[in-house]
Amino acid sequence: MNLSLPAIIAQTALLLLLAPLLSGLIRNWKAKLQNRRGPRVWQLYFDLAKFWRKDMVISEHASWIFSFTPYVMFLTALAAGLMLPMVTAQAPLGLFGGVLALVGLLALGRFFLALGGLDPASAFGGMGSSREMTIAAIAEPAMMLAIFTLAIAAGSTSLSQIVMASQGPGWKFLDPSHALAFTAMFIVLLAETGRIPVDNPATHLELTMIHEAMLLEYSGRYLALIEWGASIKQLVLMALLANIFFPIGLAAETTPGTFALGLLWLVAKLLALAGAVVLVETCNAKLRLFRVPDLLSAAFILAMLALVSIFLFK
Amino acid sequence: MMLPPTTLLIASLCGYAIGAVGGLLFMRREKLAAAFTFGVAALSASSSLLAGLFILAGAPPGANGPLDLLPPLIPYLKFTVRLDPLGAFFLVLVSVLGMAISIYSLGYARGFFGRKNVGVLGASYNALLLATTLLFAADNIWVFLIAWELMALTAFCLVSFEHEKPETRQAGVLFFIMSHIDAGCIIAGFLLLFQASGDYSFSSLHDIGARMSSGHRNAAFVLFLLGFGIKSGVVPLHVWLPVAHPVAPSNVSALMSGVLIKTGIYGLTRVCFDFLGPPPLGWGVTILAVGTVSAVLGVLYALMEHDLKRLLAYHSIENIGIILMGLGASLIFLHTGHPRLAALGLIAGMYHTINHASFKGLLFLGAGAVAQATHTRNMEEMGGLSKQMRETAFYFLVGAVAISALPPLNGFVSEWLTYQSLLQGFDVTESMWRLVFPLSGAMLALTGALAAACFVKAFGITFLGQPRSERAANAVEAAPSMRIGMALLTAVCVLLGLFPTAFIRLLDPLTQQLIGEQISQQLTVANGLALGSLSQNPGTISTLGMALTGICLLPIPLALWLIFGRKARKRRGPTWACGQPGLTPQMEYTATGFSKPVRMIFKALFQPRRDVQREYDFSPYFATTIRFESHIEEVFVERLYRPLRIWILRVSRRVRALQAGSIHAYLLYIFVTLLLLLLFAL
Q1: Poorest-confidence range of A148-162, B129-143, B435-449?
Q2: In chain A, whose CA is at the least distance from the CA of B444?
């Protein structure tokens, strides 16, 4: 386990560049599926470039937390991404933390984003913060149980170890514990990335938004950082799901050939997962806020069953 | 010349005693009393800190031999003290906190000038530190129990310090009653141990459980669990804690939450790992289960609070639960014969103990500064304080991030260690009991996420937004010494967070003493940069690495700013209020509103009651006046303690009939007793 600078730089670039594309793709596909033309796939890049150039209006009630938050949000998402094996089986910063650290860093970003929502003294921001923290709290146990299921099989919380254990000969996707844990994690993914049926990323109706409500007061450079950070976070979570449950194609050694193959596999898996998210978003309506716990407790039960099935079938 | 640890310990004990006497002597001159008592306390604490660190860093053998404090005047009654690694660890804890809090108190006590007797406050404060220090150094049941009782009494004096408020008096009485129930349980437990050993010294009690029958052992375990459980506030024995901690002066609250409840953890660790011998599976599972329940319920009730100090008090219950999860896992590993894993669990518990002491002490000091500046503990009347109290806000934020178990601070490290020991429990335990581990892990995740929600609320509502009251708008920054005290604990939180491998080395003597294993070498990966777990394919974390990663990535947004956003301007404007002019503080989200989703989701537990009264002229939608009241009652108070209290009162009413005041009846009692005794003698 050592740190290789080229790997770190390559993965940082990958995270920065791929994330807006993935978000744009989901938006575009979703529109297509709903018989709309939709924004271009590249739209988010243009948006970000525009935001960076724009002037900012900061609320007169805001304190330094408000300006600090976008940086925390962006950097934690990026650092979390560096702990994830994306193209190679060895994560660039795997030494600095495994799956628990990844979850912790994303939680740190969320913590500050929620504070940033409360800072400008607007009711909407407070509402968004309150809902975001509540949903995150009830999603957390399901996620942790699903992660435990994999970590127990691998005997470690290191993501590289989890991936390598899944790559071993015993890997079967239809293994009950695997399939159940995947379903649980997929539901958690929908909640964590603010997708329908939990939150609607396209809404700007004040009373229904969660994530967007916290960003209402942000503009210009800060908004760019937060939007970018949120899209990196989405990429990280989707790649996490893709790679720990389908560890196909992850390069064991870094030759250009395996690297290119790994990249292709990653893109293919992300496309498949994005397709699944788009389908779920199109086929479902947003749930009432107090129905969301039911969905997430279903995820918890599935993860629990996954654990019990390890116990039964081992 | 290096001073031997025991000399330093005695010096600090004498210091506290001088401080206590000095406080009473200078009672009439409050400025002098405050400076003297808290100054002496800070010096004494630094002396005992050195003593503890010397032992943990591996003092030469013999330097910490048992020592009699007083000549043995009474047979059996020996005042022996000795610093072993376990005691030294807790001594470090009380000393670090004692030092920071004493410095803080120098400024904080000014709030009482002309109003309350600061000399008495300082004297009781010193006496409390004296008792706690003595407790951790006790090497004899007598000394332990005397220190225990002295601690309870001085803490009672401090809780009731502002006794002119009825709320405080009630809290004091409840604390007094619960303290004595716990003392009773502990005395009974020690009697059982004494029966087997025949000697009062702790060295004779080592592994005494192996010589006891299993019934006696289990009885002793239950008694100690009850006694120490009340002290540390585990659910359902916690009712006194959220009542007593908030009403005490804030420096005392910090000491109580940071150290006093840890005496229960100390006692439990001492008894379970040192005295009672190899534990059965049931003990570990019980402690793990109790810990899990305490953690989840503690944080859920904390979320419902809008009294800042009560909120923190409930978080103490949560964190005691997390500590017990580590200890419980450790006991299970001892049972299954995995001493190295047991050492990991113990380290997780101990690490969280010192972490909780540092961040909870810090948060209580911050809350005290806020309460002194705004003259209220109600968060609904605060808001916007980060502008007037910039430094306090920063320190409180660090504490909030640490207690929410977010990287890269210390709470994250100890919860990570707890997760690691829970994770490995699944593989080494046979039978269905192994499912306990991942379930506890999931509950720990829930606890951590709810704690984050709670501290977004606590920090956001208190320090951010617009001030919700006149008093909050006119708040001023805390006195310099208070800020120094908070800065000290902030530094402790950051250091414990960033350099875990350096700190874990200090725990080696402790695990060596209690379990016979030293595992800091195995836990240190990459030359101390990262912390590992014990498994074959270890998971690692490096909080320092994460912090450095963040710093190294910072040039990316800065470069983009320079490239794209050079011309962009920043200006101040009003917050969006749907196009209406004038955003008032009434439009802000409140603490009660913030926690409403959680209250609704867990309404089966909270059973919230709400009462809305509207007066209107023509339509209920245009109310002229509105009155809203919402209330939740703790389920244990309602279902357990209230019936118990009613039952006790009913029984005592019956018993009172015995004491009717008639001299004839009393003579009869004496006669009957005499007869019975005679019969018994025959």
Answers
A1: A148-162
A2: A141
- Closest CB to A59: pick one of B554, B569, B575: B575
Q: Cis before residue B236, ω within 30 degrees of 0?
A: yes
CA-to-CA distance for B503 and B496, rounded, in angstroms? 7
Pick from A17, A53, A95 the residue to mutate for testing the B interface (most B CBs within 10 Å). A95
| SS3 of residue B66 by DSSP | coil
Q: What is the ipTM of this complex?
A: 0.96
- 3-state DSSP call for residue B515? coil
B120 lies in the same domain as B264: yes
The minimum CA-CA distance between A269 and chain B, rounded to whole Å, is 26
Q: What is the pLDDT of residue A20?
A: 96
H/E stretch holding B571 reads: strand B570-573
Nearest CA distance, A101 vs chain B (angstrom):
7
Say if residue B379's pLDDT is above 90. Answer: yes
- Inspect the interface and report whether the beta carbons of A225 and B434 lie closer than 8 Å: no
Q: Which of A53, A123, A127 sits opposite B568 (nearest CB)?
A: A53
How confident is the model over B20-26, as a mean pLDDT?
A: 93
Q: Report the pLDDT value the prediction gives residue B565, as an integer from 0 to 100.
A: 85
Query: Can you give the pLDDT at residue B1?
Result: 44
Report the C-alpha gap between B267 and B167 in whole angstroms. Answer: 30
Tell whether B578 is covered by a domain. no
Element (H, E) at A242: helix A220-245
Of residues B443, B455, B539, nearest to A157 (C-beta): B539
In Å, the largest CA–CA distance within chain B is 104
Q: Averaged over B208-220, what is the pLDDT? A: 91
> How many separate domains does chain B show?
4
Same domain, yes or no: B139 and B171: yes
A164/B37: higher pLDDT:
B37
Which residue does chain A place closest to B594, by CA atoms? A130
| Distance from C-alpha of B489 to C-alpha of B495, rounded to nearest angstrom | 10
Q: Which chain B residues are Cβ-neighbours of A127 within 8 angstroms?
A: 589, 593
Whether residues B344 and B259 share a domain: the answer is no
Burial class (CB in 10 A: 0-12, 13-18, 19+), A213: buried
The 8-class DSSP code of residue B641 comes to I
Asked whether the predicted pLDDT for residue A185 surpasses 50, the reply is yes
Selected residue of A133, A159, A290 to mutate for chain B interface (largest B Cβ count, 10 A): A133
Tokens of B153: 């009494």
Answer yes or no: do B464 and A118 touch at CB < 8 A: yes
Nearest CA in chain A to B303: A134
Task: Tell me which chain A residues have a C-beta less than 8 angstroms from the C-beta of B456.
Answer: 111, 114-115, 118, 129, 133
Among residues B247, B262, B277, the one where a domain terminates is B277
| A81 close to A7: Cβ distance less than 8 angstroms | no
| Residues of A in Cβ contact (< 8 Å) with B573 | 57-60
d(C-alpha B647, C-alpha B656), whole Å = 14
